[in-house]
Amino acid sequence: MATSAMLIARDDAAIETAVARLMERFGTRCATGESIREQHGHTTTYLTNQPPDAVVFASSTEEVAEIVRTCAEFGVPLIPFGTGTSLEGHLNAPAGGISIDLSAMNRIVAVNAEDLDCTVEAGVTRMQLNENLRDQGLFFPIDPGADASLGGMAATRASGTNAVRYGTMKDNVLALTAVMADGTIVRTGSRARKSSAGYDLTRLLVGSEGTLAVITEVTLKLSGIPGAVSAGVCPFPDVESACNAVIMTIQSGLPVARIEFLDEHQVRACNAYSKLDLAEMPTLFLEFHGTEAGVAEQADRFGDIAEEFGGGPFDWATRTEDRSRLWKARHEAYWASLRLKPAAKGVSTDVCVPISRLAECVMATRADIEENGFTATMVGHVGDGNFHVLVLFDPDNPDEMAATNGFIERLNWRAIEMGGTCTGEHGIGQGKMKYMAREHGPALDVMRTIKRALDPGNIMNPGKIFTLDG
Amino acid sequence: MATSAMLIARDDAAIETAVARLMERFGTRCATGESIREQHGHTTTYLTNQPPDAVVFASSTEEVAEIVRTCAEFGVPLIPFGTGTSLEGHLNAPAGGISIDLSAMNRIVAVNAEDLDCTVEAGVTRMQLNENLRDQGLFFPIDPGADASLGGMAATRASGTNAVRYGTMKDNVLALTAVMADGTIVRTGSRARKSSAGYDLTRLLVGSEGTLAVITEVTLKLSGIPGAVSAGVCPFPDVESACNAVIMTIQSGLPVARIEFLDEHQVRACNAYSKLDLAEMPTLFLEFHGTEAGVAEQADRFGDIAEEFGGGPFDWATRTEDRSRLWKARHEAYWASLRLKPAAKGVSTDVCVPISRLAECVMATRADIEENGFTATMVGHVGDGNFHVLVLFDPDNPDEMAATNGFIERLNWRAIEMGGTCTGEHGIGQGKMKYMAREHGPALDVMRTIKRALDPGNIMNPGKIFTLDG
Prior knowledge:
The structure is a homodimer of 470-residue chains.
Chain A: H1 12-26, E1 30-31, H2 34-39, E2 54-57, H3 61-74, E3 78-81, E4 98-101, E5 108-112, E6 117-121, H4 126-133, E7 138-139, H5 150-155, H6 163-166, H7 169-172, E8 173-180, E9 185-189, H8 201-205, E10 213-221, E11 223-224, E12 228-235, H9 239-251, E13 258-262, H10 264-274, E14 283-290, H11 292-308, E15 315-317, H12 320-331, H13 333-338, E16 345-352, H14 358-372, E17 375-381, E18 386-393, H15 398-417, H16 436-440, H17 443-454
Parallel strand pairs in A: 2-4, 3-4
Antiparallel strand pairs in A: 1-2, 5-6, 6-10, 7-11, 8-9, 8-10, 12-14, 12-15, 13-14, 13-17, 16-18, 17-18
Helix pairs in contact in A: 1-3, 9-11, 9-14, 10-12, 14-15
C-alpha cells in the first residue's frame, strides 16, 4: 500500500496564477499583505512562521468549494484557518498556497433544542456558541484553552477540561459538511444519534487536520446545563499523591465533570497572573455536575479519596463567581506560565497515557525537568491520563532550544512506551510528525493510503500529519 | 473520485487453487462440507443463503494474515465469521470465497481493571466476556439481541439496550488489531483514553463490515458495575404517549441506562413466550444505574414524566431475579415474535431518527402495518430514536413477501426523510445497500474511494455495503 509518491513542492508560477484567479473572483476578500499572511501562518510557539501566499475570506460552503476547485486546478496547496490557535504548526504553508479563512462563516445554522443538537458554520467559536445556547439551558462542553473555532476543534479532535465526563470532539460531532480535494461538497453522518450505515466518515474527518477535506459546517451534540454544579480545589503534598488520588477517583467510577492537575509551579504562576491565593502545592481543580444531592455525594466521596492520599483540605467554591474565577484561572494557565520567565518563548506539549501509568509518567517527566533545570509548568486533564508541559526557553539560545527539544522528545517516547499517545488533543501538525511511525507502526501506511486516495494531488494542508511527500 | 472499476466475479479456478492451498496448510481446519458451508452463509432472515466455498477455522492473527495473503494471491473473496447472527446478509458469499471463522479465537488477552479496559480476541462473545469480568466488578455494556462475538459487534458498529447511557461500539472500542487486504497486520489506536495522533482508523474499521480489514483483536472500554440498579415497567394508553414520554425523558437529561419500547403485540408475544403477565399495552422497560439515592431520584422523575403522558402504573422490579427475567424477556423478543405466526419467516428491520421525530415515525409505521394487515411487532432502543419492526410473512407466498419488502422500503425512506438513518445498529450488509445513495449522497463516493484504495482487488467481503463492482 501507499507506494505512489505524492511530493508537493512550491510552484511559484502555479501559485501566482491561482492567486490572480482568486483575487479576480474575491476582490478584497483575497488578501496578500505581508502582515495578514504572517498572521495566518503559525504564530503560537517556537515553530517557524511559514506564511501562505494569499488569504481568502470565505463566506459559504459553496465559496470554499470554489476556492478548492481553483487550488485543485493549479495544484496549489490550501490550508483551512479558524482562529489561529493551533499549537503544532497546522496553519503553516511549507510549500506555499492559499489560507482559507473561515472566521466569517460564523452563523449558527440551527439549534434543535428538542434533539439536544445544533449545526454551526465552521468559524463559530465555542464561546460564541455557548453564549447563544445559555438561554435555552443548553451548553457545548468541549473547551480547549483557546476560544477556538468549532471547525478547527473538529479538525484537530480537540478536547479540554470536560472531556473526562463529556468526551472529546470525536464523541460530540454528529455530522459534518466538508469540501473534498476535488471540490465536491459532502455531508457525513446525520442527526440520528447512532447509525451503522457504512463507513464513519465523520470520525475519519474529525482529527484529519485539513489534510482530507475542509470542514465547513459541524453538527454537534449538546448537553443540558446541569441542575447543580460545584467546584473545589484540593492541594496535595506531592505530585505522586495527587496523581494517585486521580487514578483512584476514576477507577472508583466517580463521575467527575472536571479533574485538573496543576503542579506547584503552575499554581504559583496562576496566583500571580489570576490573583488567586492558593497554597503553592500540587493541586487538583474539580467540578461535579448533577442534582444537588448527587453533587454533594460525589464531593464527599472525592474528599474521602483525597484524604486517603494525604491531600486536603478540599476547599469548596460554591458561588458561581468563585467557580468562574477558578476556571478562568485554569484557562489562563498558559498565559500565566509565560510570565514566569520574561522574554522567553513557551512550548506546550501534550501526551496521554493509560490512567494507571499517569503517576509514573508525570513523576519521570518531573524528574527530567529538574535534572535539566528547566523553567516548566505541568497541567493536565488528568482524568483522561492527559497532561501538558509548558517549557519556557530563550529562543535566542540554541543550547536551551536544543535541550528543550530533547526533553519534549523524551516525554513523547515515554508516553508511547507506556501504551499512550504523542498527543491527547493538540494534534500532529508539523510538530509531532516524527512520533507517528513509532506510535502507529504499519497503521501509518494505512493512513497514508487514505490520504493519497482522497487527495491525490496532495493539496490539502500538505506537510501536516505526513511530510510534504505525503 | 472512485472511478476505477473493481468488479469481482466468481472465479472457479482461482477458488479451487486457493482452497487446495488452504486445505494443505490447515488440514481439517479447512472445511468444505455442504452443511458447514451453508451454516457460514446467511441464515437468520429471508435473504438467500449464499455459502462460501470453504470455511477456515483460524486460531491466531498470524493465521488470519496467512489466509488473507492466500486469498489476495489468487484474487479470492474472504468473509470474516464470528457467531453468524448478522441480520442483513453480511456473511453471504455472492462471488464465492473463503469464510474465516474466528470463533476459536476466543481468548481474553488482558483485563486491565485499573484502566477499565480489556483486550479480547475477535471470537470472544459478549456474554463470555461479562462472565469473566463479573468477579472484578466490571462489565461491558453493549448488548445486541444475540450473544454476538465482539469482533462481529465491532465490524457492524453494534449497540443494544444500554446504548442510550453507555454508547455504541463506536464509543467503546479503544483499539483494534486487524489484517488488511494485503495481509499486513495493523494495530489501530492505543489504550490511551484519547488521542489526536492522526486519522481515527479505529472508528473507520468499526462498522466497516469486513470490507476493509479482518478484525482479530478488540480493546474495549469497560464500566464498573453500578452500585445500585433498579428496573421497571410502565404501560401507556397508546404508542404516541409512550414515545412522547421517552422524548421528554431524554430532553430533560435524565440519565436512564435503558429505555426500551415494546408495542402491545410484542408485549403479548413476550407474555406467551417468556411467561410474563404484563398488561398488553404499549410499554416501556426502564433501568436506572447509579447510587441508591441517585437511582431512586431518577425513578421518581421518570414516574412524574410517565404520569404526565397518561402512563402508569410504573411497576418496580427491585429484586435481581425480577430484573433478569424482564431483560431476558426483552432479549427474547425476536424469538417470541416469531411464534405469533407459525411457519412464518421474520424480517427484523432497523431504523433510527432524531428523537424529536420518534413518535411521528413510529406512528406512521404503525399506520402502515395496520393498513396492510401485517403481523408485526415493534420494539425499540427508543432513547436513541432507534426502533425495529419484525414483520412475519409466509416465504412461500410471493405476494406477502413483496408486500413486506415494500413496507420495509417505505420505512427506510421515511426514516431517511426525517433526518435519520436506514440502520441504527444492524448494518448495511446486502439488505440495505439500496438506501445508501439517498442517505449519503456524494459521501458514498468518498466511502467507495476508501474501499478501492484499501482493498484494490475487492476481496474483502465483496458485495456488502457496496455492490460487487465495489
